[in-house]
Specification:
- It is a single chain.
- The chain has a domain of 217 residues.
- The chain starts with a helix and ends with a helix.
- The longest helix is centred in the C-terminal third of the chain and has 27 residues.
- It is globular.
- By secondary structure, it is mostly helical.
- It is built from 14 helices and four strands.
- Helices cover 74% and strands 2% of the residues.
- Helix 2 crosses helix 11, helix 2 packs across helix 12 and helix 12 crosses helix 13.
- Strands 1-4 form a two-stranded antiparallel sheet. It has a two-stranded antiparallel ribbon with strand order 2-3.
């Protein structure tokens, strides 16, 4: 009951946030929701099924380019391109999963495989001139004063609410997954794959399902990224640093939990932006200060809260994960 009350209060605050937030605060909140959603998508693969991916920027990038390229060349809106993005990323995820699980690649080697695919794709997109190549793909900015949900063109408040809706849907979906047969099988595989196999669980099938669902969800984050920022560069969107940003939220907030990706994204974005803005106000510039901050936060959490911030906070609040 307490968990439902706290969740309702949080949702209420988020719904009315744009009514009293300034442009900068709204952009930061949108960024938090973006990484909370992307972290939730990654959490399905790692937190639920125990398959470490360090190349989730692959799905963000492919999803972004699929929808943006379709809109740029044909005029079809984001909600048309999103289906192409999901399909392509599901196929990519299935290909990676099949290669890995069919030949027994797991652990750190699976993580390296995901990085390799992201890097190969980055190099490939550098040579696709139809999508801008290394010079980037730019989408026309239209309808910034209104709400065009079909083409995902509109005000910052519209993008905020779209991202909030995606986060809410992802939260509900992941909750249902955890309570389903798939969720119980994934947790068994995560804890001890050999024991799960001994119990008759088809680990290949259920790991493949986790990879495909995670890649499909992440592709939606890529579509949002493309239409929110209106420009795409292979070197930027496929870079491993993008993958690290996605996974840090769940790791710091709490892997395998529902609130962990949300809390972790909020902590990282608020503190890192606060430090950056504070240094800028003092006239100091330190290139790479965010990366240093991310490393320090990760170090502190691993040392003192190895399960993440949310499990410890949940115990104090008397609520579930």
């Amino acid at each position: 009951m307490r968990a439902k009350i706290l969740l309702s209060i949080l949702l209420l605050v988020l719904v009315f946030f744009p009514t009293f937030a300034g442009p900068y605060a709204l952009s930061v909140a949108t960024l938090i929701l973006f990484f909370a959603y992307a972290g939730q998508a990654w959490n399905v693969m790692m937190g639920f099924a125990g398959q470490l991916s360090l190349g989730h920027s692959l799905y963000v990038g492919v999803g972004a380019y699929a929808a943006a390229g379709l809109y740029f060349h044909t005029g079809l809106g984001a909600w048309a391109g999103i289906w192409l993005a999901i399909l392509l990323c599901m196929l990519l995820g299935a290909a990676i999963g099949f290669l890995a699980f069919r030949f027994g690649i797991s652990g750190v080697y699976f993580a390296l495989l995901t990085i390799a695919f992201a890097e190969f794709t980055r190099i490939g997109f550098d040579h696709i001139q139809w999508l801008g190549g290394p010079g980037g793909l730019f989408i026309k900015v239209e309808h910034r004063t209104g709400w065009d949900l079909v083409n995902l063109r509109g005000t910052p408040a519209m993008f905020y609410y779209v991202m909030l809706a995606l986060c809410a849907l992802a939260f509900i979906f992941c909750f249902l997954l955890l309570k389903s047969k798939a969720g119980y099988y994934w947790q068994a595989i995560r804890e001890n794959e050999e024991a799960a196999q001994a119990l008759g669980i088809n680990t290949f099938r259920w790991k493949m399902l986790a990879v495909v669902i995670s890649s499909a969800m992440t592709s939606v984050a890529g579509v949002f990224y493309a239409f929110y920022y209106n420009n795409l560069f292979p070197e930027q969107i496929f870079h491993i640093s993008r993958s690290i940003e996605i996974i840090l939220g769940p790791i710091i907030g709490g892997i395998g939990t529902l609130f962990g990706p949300i809390l972790g994204a909020a902590v990282l974005i608020l503190l890192s932006d606060g430090i950056t803005e504070g240094l800028a106000a003092l006239g100091w510039e330190f290139p790479g200060v965010k990366q240093v901050f991310y490393g320090l936060v990760l170090l502190v959490v691993v040392m003192f809260l190895p399960r993440g911030i949310w499990p410890a906070l949940a115990r104090r609040l008397g609520v579930g994960k």
